[in-house]
Automatic annotation (TrEMBL):
It comes from Zavarzinia aquatilis. Residues 293-356 form the Mop domain. This is Molybdenum ABC transporter ATP-binding protein. GO terms for cellular component: membrane. The lineage of its organism: Bacteria, Pseudomonadati, Pseudomonadota, Alphaproteobacteria, Rhodospirillales. One of its GO terms (molecular function) is ATP hydrolysis activity.
Amino acid sequence: MSLSVAIEHRAGDFRLAADFTTQGRVTSLFGPSGSGKTTVIDVIAGLTRPLRGRIAIDDLVLLDTDRGICLPPWRRRIGYVFQEGRLFPHLSVRQNLLYGRFFAPKGEGLADFAAIVDMLGIGHLLKRRPRLLSGGEKQRVAIGRALLANPRLLLMDEPLSALDEARRQDVLPFLARIRDEAKVPIVHVSHDLSEVIALADHLVVLDAGKVAAAGPLAAVMARPDVAPLARRQDAGAVIELFVAGHDAAAGMTLLEGAIGQLAAPLRPLPIGAACRIWLHARDIILAREAPHGLSARNILPVTITGLLPHADGSRDVLLDCRGQPLFARVTPAAVADLGLAPGQSIHAIIKSVALA
Ligand SMILES: Nc1ncnc2c1ncn2[C@@H]1O[C@H](COP(=O)(O)OP(=O)(O)OP(=O)(O)O)[C@@H](O)[C@H]1O
């Protein structure tokens, strides 16, 4: 699936001019509060009509203001999961789910009720009313209802934001299952970078109503012009690795990727499994000489590519490790003591707890 969006809109003083294309299985719209994320997905869903623009899924044009095309929401076949479930309180979970199926197009084969219920782990809840569900269960039912309508695209607006941290961790694996098992592309809104990194393969970064960057997740996160936006929350780099082996005696799982080998705390993952690590700037220590008396593991030769001041007075050191960008946060005193400067070769020491 290819989704192309080029829209202009105005709401009060807010101006939106967003233009991006994505082929991602999960595309995250990420950006600070008020940057326009919800407005963009409301326009894609057909809930908000923009001043002008064009939206297409593959060859199907949903909106083209130049040609006077604007499909109503029910003809777009787009599922929408809101922040807080929005289930029908007077219907059971089963009835809420079947309500979704009511909107599935006739003659295309129905979405598999049992498979979706199983995928979301809600089989034991089917007879209950929504008021007897936890927040995380409500969100899973809302997602099931959206999937049962057989959508060509699933939109999710901060689906975990109404949940506490423990419930978020409960629901996140179900979202990952949908990504991996349901054949429905997802556009997902979040201002939580850890959620984005867990789910997305494509990223659209919005800032003040404009697209600051768009493309594959790791590539977008590595862009120096995007780093300051992410840095409002947390600086770091996305690293794609795979499980190369386990050293049970040392309590380690060995991960390998373009940057070399890293040793993480032992995890029961199959050899060859892909994994993605979000390496925080604060979890990297810089040293001019390769340190003695430390295990050689997790010490990477890197080159400094830039130094960026951070709002709290510290510096983010931009690093390159065999083409993989990394960030390390250091104090101004450390910059002076180590004589850090662009072009310098140096060692990055990764704390192994950072790889847990
Ligand atoms: N109907 C409206 N009238 C006036 N301003 C509006 C209207 N709808 C949205 N806005 C403004 O448009 C901007 C973008 O809102 P939007 O909800 O799209 O942002 P967001 O990135 O989803 O934010 P958040 O992360 O806080 O949900 C905000 O400044 C908001 O106040």
